[in-house]
């Protein structure tokens, strides 16, 4: 009888929607789809958004279309999710790259795509910024020039240099591993409070177009 009960318990768990847990706890995976949750980050509130939600074959994606002369804005999804997440996954695709961009040089710090992960612990804030670079290979990284005492920002190249446009690529970020690597092994990983995306061409004065889709956090 024990084996029968175990069998039906496994069947029940497999039928739970969205990766939900049988014990009623938080799901193992959480999707953050394109939609109204994504808004211009408040500190860029005066700038017009150049992001839109696009339907492609029944699936929704975020499209960024930066044109020269516009103010740069970050699109942000505020999160209020219990528990701790170890991995972030998403897809992105570039239609137009910023010409002559280099994230490490003042005045040319444009990226075809950037995904921000915002952490907050009491008074301290931490940001991991994953970028698709036209200059640097994956793994290139440095502390953000706008880091300060209570807010640390670290940039990590996740994709690049580009080989082609119009091609979807999968990306995955080991959040715990990266957090400890760039902010200190002795620092506890705080809660994630939001995700952001940025496509910009203000430094190089070029048009840049990119898509983002299928954001998923995994515990």
Would you report the number of β strands? 13
What is the top-level CATH class? Answer: Mainly Beta
Share of helix, binned? 10-25%
CATH architecture: Sandwich
> What ranges have pLDDT less than 50 throughout 5 or more consecutive residues?
1-23
Spatial separation of the terminal alpha carbons: 33 Å
Strand content: 35-45%
Can you characterise this structure?
The protein is mostly beta strands and 219 residues long. The chain has a single domain (19-218), classed as Galactose-binding domain-like (Jelly Rolls), CATH 2.60.120. 11% of the residues lie in helices and 41% in strands. It has two helices and 13 strands. Strands 2-5-12-7-8-10-9 form a seven-stranded mixed β-sheet, covered by helices on one side. Strands 1, 3, 4, 6, 11 and 13 form a six-stranded antiparallel β-sheet that branches.
Summarize the helices and strands and which ones pair or pack.
Elements: H1 2-15, E1 29-32, E2 38-40, E3 51-56, E4 59-66, E5 75-78, E6 87-96, E7 113-121, E8 124-132, E9 141-143, E10 151-159, E11 169-174, H2 175-183, E12 191-198, E13 208-218
Parallel strand pairs: 8-10
Antiparallel strand pairs: 1-13, 2-5, 3-4, 4-13, 5-12, 6-11, 6-13, 7-8, 7-12, 9-10
Keyword list:
219 residues; Jelly Rolls; six-stranded antiparallel β-sheet; 2 helices; disordered N terminus
Short structural summary:
By secondary structure, the protein is mainly beta. It has a single domain, classed as Sandwich (Jelly Rolls).
């Amino acid at each position: 009888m024990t084996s029968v009960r175990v069998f039906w318990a496994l069947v029940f768990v497999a039928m739970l929607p969205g990766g939900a847990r049988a014990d009623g706890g938080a799901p193992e995976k959480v999707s953050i789809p394109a939609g109204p949750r994504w808004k211009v980050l408040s500190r860029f509130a005066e700038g017009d958004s150049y992001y839109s939600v696009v339907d492609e074959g029944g699936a929704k994606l975020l499209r960024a279309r930066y044109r020269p002369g516009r103010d740069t804005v970050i699109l942000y999804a505020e999160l209020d999710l219990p528990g701790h997440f170890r991995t972030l996954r998403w897809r992105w695709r570039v239609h137009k790259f910023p010409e002559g961009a280099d994230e490490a040089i003042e005045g040319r710090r444009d990226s075809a795509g950037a995904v921000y992960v915002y952490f907050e612990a009491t008074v301290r804030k931490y940001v991991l910024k994953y970028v698709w670079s036209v200059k640097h290979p994956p793994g290139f990284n440095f502390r953000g020039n706008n880091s300060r005492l209570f807010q640390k920002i670290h940039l990590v190249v996740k994709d690049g240099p580009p080989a082609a446009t119009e091609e979807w690529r999968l990306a995955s970020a080991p959040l715990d591993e990266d957090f400890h690597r760039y902010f200190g092994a002795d620092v506890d990983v705080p809660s994630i409070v939001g995700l952001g995306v940025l496509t910009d061409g203000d430094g190089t004065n070029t048009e840049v177009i990119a898509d983002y889709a299928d954001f998923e956090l995994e515990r």
